[in-house]
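hey so u asked for the seq, here:
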Amino acid sequence: MSSPDHFAVGLVVGSVYALAALGLTLVYGVLRFANFAHGDLMMLGGYLAYFALTGAVVGTRRDVHLPRALDSLPGASERLGDLTFGYGLLVAAVLSALALGLLCIGLDRLVYRPLRRRRAGVVILAVASLGLAIGLRSLMLMVWGPNPRLYVEGVFPAHRFPFGVLLKSDQVFTFAVAVALAGLVYLLLFRTRLGKAMRALADNPDLARVSGIDTERVTVATWALAGALMAVAGVLLALQAQLNPQLGFVVLLPVFAAAILGGIGNPVGALLGAMVVATAQETSVGWEIFGRQLDPTYKPGVAFVILIAILLLRPRGLLGAKT
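ran it, structure tokens below
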């Protein structure tokens, strides 16, 4: 791959990170705690779409399939143009977003809200989310096993775009969907009453309550939106890689880096941070250090070096508030 190819792939990966970082920073902005279960919830969203599409769970000797799943519907598996999948995966992604949004609301009611009412500190909430992450990872291992899963199997060609960039149709689709969803979230946050209530609660919770904002309703909406974004990000990520229960923790690190780099709690900053982190990771593959090409396994390290360097200059992130 050439440098333009690495940069283009970085934009695609960055768009997925952006959706995930957007959900993470929304939860942090409203509830003021770092959700360490974010990456595993992303993977659960990908697996829920896989289950809706194929109806497959791991069995004693081989997978067990439900009698009816989306891929059994007429034409559900037929490819949409140059894409590798049919409309069945699109329906599965929507169902996954709805299911994960409801699950996040339920987890908040069962785990986080009781802790908030007991005035638990941010450390307790973070540890609770870490325990939840481990539990979700174990659940995915039990239900779908440790082996990687694919929505569609096979090798598909890439297409040449301007500047000699080679990308697969699924990558272009991923970028377009992520950008469209990020734009819709921006409109929701800055053009609707609910979005203004979210931002008011994030800026000053006490003043928001005194002003008559229904904080419980805003919290529910925040979790639902974050869950939907996590699910879509998980599905889009699985289109670029493979579904793996361990991938959630691997993705969590650059997503956190993106949110912090952009200015934790700032949605626009999360989008910018995600692009910086992902393009730095992908383009670093072509770097030569001491006459040797940098190994791809060092990609996460490159992102964190850039994160530390920027935070030394701007401790609150690229778009973080000065006061």
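The longest helix spans residues 87-117. Residues 20-244 form one domain.
lmk if thats what u needed
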